[in-house]
Design goal:
- The protein has one helix at 3-54.
- The protein is mainly alpha-helical.
- The chain has a domain at 24-55.
- The mean pLDDT is 93.
Length: 55
């Protein structure tokens, strides 16, 4: 294998590693967004109950 091929493979390995890290980060972001959406749903439900008590 020549130096050019080794360099290309080295860059591809680095890209693969970076992509794996991004995938992990996206899993965490999705979980956090889901948590936020659930919390907002609860707040809306609670506010709806408050509005019905006032009316």
């Amino acid at each position: 294998m020549n130096n050019t091929e080794n360099l290309i493979l080295e860059h591809l390995r680095g890209m693969r590693s970076d992509l794996a890290s991004i995938k992990d980060d996206m899993r965490e972001v999705k979980a956090r967004v889901t948590s936020i959406e659930t919390a907002i749903g609860g707040i809306k439900r609670d506010m709806g109950g408050l509005y019905s008590d006032i009316a």
